[in-house]
Every structure is written in C-alpha cells, then in structure tokens.
Write a structure and sequence with these properties.
The chain is mainly alpha-helical. It has three domains: about 5-225, Clc chloride channel (Orthogonal Bundle); about 240-445, Clc chloride channel (Orthogonal Bundle), CATH 1.10.3080; about 455-595, CBS-domain (Roll), CATH 3.10.580.10. The protein is built from 24 helices and five strands. The chain has helices at about 5-10, 20-25, 25-65, 70-90, 100-110, 120-135, 140-160, 165-180, 185-195, 200-225, 245-270, 280-300, 310-315, 325-345, 350-375, 375-395, 400-410, 415-435, 440-445, 485-490, 515-520, 530, 545-555, 580-595; strands at about 480, 500, 510-515, 560-565, 570-580. The strands form two sheets. Strands 1-2-3 form a three-stranded mixed β-sheet. The chain has a two-stranded antiparallel ribbon with strand order 4-5. Strand 2 (about 500) and strand 3 form a beta hairpin. The radius of gyration is 26 Å and the shape is globular.
Length: about 600
C-alpha cells in the first residue's frame, strides 16, 4: 500500500488488515495522535526554553569578562542585534513568527481550520529563541503555544485527517506547549478552555489531557521535578494581612489596564511610522530594552529586565533584594521594556513579563505595608505571589489559568483563597475598563475580524462590544477621479450595495451606492464620482463605538452602511460596517442559543 494511502487508511480504519482493525478503534487511533503530539510538543517546548536560556547565559558570561563600561555596551547592543536579526527573518522569510503567537494560533484555529505549515514552527522556534535569548523583555510561552500548535496540526495533516479533525489537534498542541513551558499541566488545561475554545467538550478535554500529561512527563524527565519558581515560603494560616489582596488587586488591575493600553497604542504607532524600515523596528525596540535594562542593572544590580527574568522574580519572592527603590525601578524598567519590545515587532510572549510585573508589584505593596504593619519578609513574598496572579488575570484575562499557574509554579497552596479573590477582582475591573481582551485586540490591529471568535458569541454582551469586532476591514473602494462607467467596469467582480470613495492618497471623501453608479452610467454622465458626491452628507462611525450605538445611527440616518474612520483623522478609512453585519451577528447568537 502506498505511503499516503496507508496514512489515510490508518485514520479511517478502511483497507486495514483485520487484526489491525480489530485492535485499533477510532478512539485508539486518536490516542496515538495525542500521545505523539504530547511527545513532540514536550520536546520542542523544552528545547525552545533551553535554547533561550543558553543564548542569554552565553551573552551574560561574555559580557562579564569585560569592565563595567564594555559589559554595559554589550548588554545594550545584543537585544538590538537580536531584534534586528529577528526582524529580518520575519520580514524576509516568515511573517507569522512575529509577536506573541497566541493571536496567530487563535486566528488559524477559527478561520483556517487550524491548518499550519511546519515551517511556521521551525521559524517560530528560531526567531523566538533569538529574540528572547538576546535579552528582549519577552517570554517563551506565546511562541511555545504557536510552535506546538503548528506541530500538532502537522501531525493531523500528516495522517490525512479531515480539516475539522486537524482543527481539533490545535488545542491539544497548545495545551502541551503551556504544560511544558511552565511545568504546569493543570494551568495548561484551563488556558486552552479560557483562551482558545468556545465550549467545553469531554472529547476535547480527554485529548488535551493526554497530550498535557505526556508533555509534562517529557519536560520533567529532561529538566527535573522542581517547579519553575522555587518559592521557599512557609505554609500560611488565614491571617489579617491576606486582606491586602483587595488593594493589591485594584492596583494590579490599574497597572494591567495601563500596560495593555500603552502596548496597543505603541504597537499602532510603530506600524504607522514609516521612516524606519519594518525589519529594523524590532532592532529599535531591542536597543530601548538594552538601555532600560542596563540602567536598572547599574542602579539595582538586578538584570530582571532582560529576557524572562525568573531568577530575579524568584529572589524577590524568597525575600531577597526587597529594597523599595530597586523594586520600583525594576517594575517600571520591565514595564516599558516589554511594551517597546513587543510593540516594535519582536517575537515573544507576554505571560512571563506579566508574571514578573505582578510579582514585583506585589512586593512593592508588601514592602510599603511592612513599613506600617511590621510583618516579616515571608508575607512580602506571599503578596508577591498574589500580585503575580492578579496582574496576570488583568492582562491576559484568564483568571482560572492565573490561579492554577501560580499554584503549580510555586506549589504553595496556603494562599489560594486570597489569590482567587484577588484574581477575580482584578479580572472584573480590567474587563470593565477594556471590553476586548489583549490577544483579540491584537487581532483587530492586524485587521482580522472577530466575527467567528468565541468570546463574542454571548447573548448578554455582544451589543456592547465595539463595532470593530464585526466590521469589514478590507473593503472595496471606488476612486474619486473615475466616472460612474469606469468605476462599474473596475468593480464588476465585487458587486456590493455601496462603496467608500477615496482619492489617490487613500483619503475618504464619501460613499456611493451601486445603484447610483448604474444610474449615472446609463446616462453616460461625464461627471466624476467626486462631483457626484460633492454635496453628500457623510455618516461615519468610530471603531470604539458599540454595536448597539452604530446600529441606532444607521437606522436613524436611514443608511444601510457607514465607513469606519479614525476618531482623530476622519478622512482615514479603517473599514465599513453594514446593517447586514449586525443582523448576521444577531442570527449567529440565536443559532448558538438553539444548539
């Protein structure tokens, strides 16, 4: 039997020898795929982490051989060099290797049936290792999710699975990747269901569970049984200081919200700024990281701004270096370094920076409280853990993942109650201040519609979401200098109800309907479209306006569609929204409720 035919037969169960068919049911064949995904994803995640740690360790050892000035210069230049190399690879070879990797995984899962190319995994590994390993203030977990999802998808493709079955392999790989990256199998399970999947399925659960267990076994076999953070804190009994989780949750939500807003705005500014080539921008971000990292290093003797920063975080949790000034410098250094590294186009995740920032923020609150209440440093360490959870929940919007990841990374159960309370408060506040979560906001910046994303299928909240979640980004436009006849000829393959009218500089001038174009074309009018719409009252909406408000505007103004424009630049067209878009979303909600 030919190789390809055998693979398909293996999956389908057809044309197999009787003894093989008798011993391999459909569930057993899937079990083989899940085990294989766990093995390969576990190995890939461990090798990725070791590559990052090895590169950064080599750079630090090299810098340590020189004096303060020379070593500082080396530590400044290497993140810039790493960013530059990563930028060149992303721009010239593999654009999907940019950013976190989690938004890319979500987009592929929901819009492309989870079909990845294996080269994406290869280049994500290389670019992520170079970017984070050179000292960029990012983490390994986002790229690990992308890398392992691609590997798991490839397994499905290799065995000839149908697209729906290939899609079901993506959460298996994502869970295995997170489990191996953090040595946190339970947190990996929660992450997949909170961030990626729209519903709970026992079949999905079983597949993810198998891959997560196998991946964790691989990780622990190679790296050992110890948790990622070796927190040597005692077991705590319920005490009054645990109430500090409440103000800490509020502070975490505030800074978490600020972090997300600044990151999104900075990313948009980097993209709009065309004076620097796209491939060079990660190098600029790396240079900024180097300057901030060296400034903090020389001021505090702590290098936590560079790379993942777990060693510095671990020291803080265990009561070392609890100097308020140093902690504040570390927090703001890491805060802005991460924003610049990510916004400039670097390749790396935001889980580790969020945990680091939350841990340092918790320690800051703990040290300030220690000045007034006189508790010992173990309480400061416990508050650091609480800060990790609440800041992570505010930034990544996965409160249960946040809860489990702190527990599994530190193996300290005694602070679970204040941790759960702080996480939920921080999560609820951050969700209120910004409706769309970080990873989905990144997708919107990339002009990827969220119409099919699971987070926006709920009956209660969809009308309050920004219109950008259902708008069309890549809309068909008419040129203002064309006549109606010329425009119809150009648009004959894209018949829509109406079209935004733009000039040669792509500035929005108005809207024209297909019916109007046909009328002027029948009359053989010499008028240009600009002349036709000269006296038009143009109705526009902004991307942050709610679906409810936009629908009301369209009804009141008696128009079927409206261009979506930049609030600060009304002539800059971002996309178009129609009443049909709103109706489609309503129908999708009703269909989901009936199922």
């Amino acid at each position: 039997m030919p190789k390809e035919k055998y693979r398909k037969a293996f999956f389908s169960g057809k044309n197999l020898p009787d003894w093989l068919r008798a011993h391999l049911s459909d569930s057993q064949r899937y079990f083989v795929f899940w085990v294989l995904a766990g093995l390969l994803c576990g190995l890939a995640a461990v090798m990725f982490r070791l590559s990052i740690e090895g590169i950064l360790k080599t750079i630090k050892s090299f810098a340590a051989e020189f004096g303060v000035l020379e070593s500082s210069l080396i530590m400044i230049l290497f993140p810039a060099l790493g960013g530059l190399v990563a930028g060149l690879i992303i721009f010239k070879i593999e654009p999907t290797a940019a950013g976190s990797g989690i938004p890319q995984t979500k987009a592929r899962y929901y819009q492309d049936f989870g079909v990845f190319k294996l080269r994406e995994a290869l280049w994500r590994f290389i670019v992520g290792a170079i970017s984070v390993g050179s000292g960029m203030s990012l983490g390994p977990e986002g790229p690990t999710v992308h890398l392992c999802s691609a590997i798991s998808s490839w397994i499905g493709q290799k065995f000839g699975l149908a697209k729906k079955r290939i899609q079901s392999m993506v959460p298996v790989g994502a869970g295995a990747g997170i489990a191996a990256a953090f040595n946190a199998p339970m947190a990996a399970m929660f992450f997949v269901f909170e961030e990626l999947l729209s519903d709970f399925s026992t079949k999905s659960l079983f597949g993810i569970l198998v891959a997560v267990v196998i991946s964790s076994i691989v990780e622990r076999t190679i790296l050992g049984e110890s948790p990622v953070l070796n927190a040597t804190l005692p077991s705590f009994s319920t005490d009054w200081w645990m109430i500090l989780c409440l103000p800490l949750a509020i502070v975490s939500a505030l800074f978490g919200h600020l972090f997300v807003r600044l990151l999104l705005k900075s990313r948009a500014k980097f993209r709009e700024y065309n004076m620097i080539p796209v491939w060079a921008k990660p190098g600029i971000g790396g240079l900024a990281v180097g300057i901030l990292g060296v400034t903090v290093l020389l001021s505090t003797n702590q290098d936590g701004v560079f790379g993942i920063g777990y060693a510095t975080l671990n020291d803080t949790i265990n009561g070392k270096n609890l100097v308020l000034f140093a902690l504040i410098l570390l927090f703001f250094g890491k805060f802005f370094a991460t924003i610049l590294a990510f916004a400039s186009g670097g390749s790396g995740g935001l889980f580790a920076p969020a945990l680091f920032l939350g841990g340092i923020l918790g320690a800051i609150v703990g040290v300030i409280g220690q000045m007034f209440f006189g508790y010992d440093s173990t309480v400061v360490g416990a508050l650091s853990l609480l800060g990790m959870g609440s800041f992570f929940a505010a930034v990544n919007r996965c409160p249960m993942t946040s809860f489990m990841i702190i527990f599994e990374m530190t193996q300290n159960y005694s602070i679970m109650l204040p941790l759960m309370l702080g996480n939920m408060i921080s999560y609820l506040l951050a969700s209120k201040w910004q409706t769309i979560a970080l990873y989905d906001s990144l997708l919107l910046q990339d002009n990827i519609s969220l119409k099919k994303m699971p987070s926006y299928m709920g009956e209660q909240d969809w009308r309050n979401l920004p219109i950008q979640t259902i708008m069309t980004f890549d809309c068909i436009k008419a040129l203002c200098g064309d006549t109606a006849k010329q425009s119809l000829e150009k648009l004959k393959e894209f018949k829509h109800h109406a079209y935004p009218v733009v000039n040669d500089d792509k500035k929005l001038l108005g809207m024209i309907t297909h019916h109007e174009l046909e009328e002027y074309a029948r009359e053989n009018s010499p008028k240009t479209i600009k002349e036709i719409i000269r006296r038009q009252k143009l109705i526009t909406v902004h991307p942050e306006q709610s679906i409810r408000d936009v629908a009301k505007i369209l009804v009141v103004e008696d128009v079927m569609q409206a261009p979506v424009v930049n609030p600060t630049r009304p002539d800059r067209l971002l996309g178009i929204v129609t009443l049909h878009d709103v109706a489609r979303q309503q129908n999708a909600i009703e269909d989901a409720m009936e199922r």
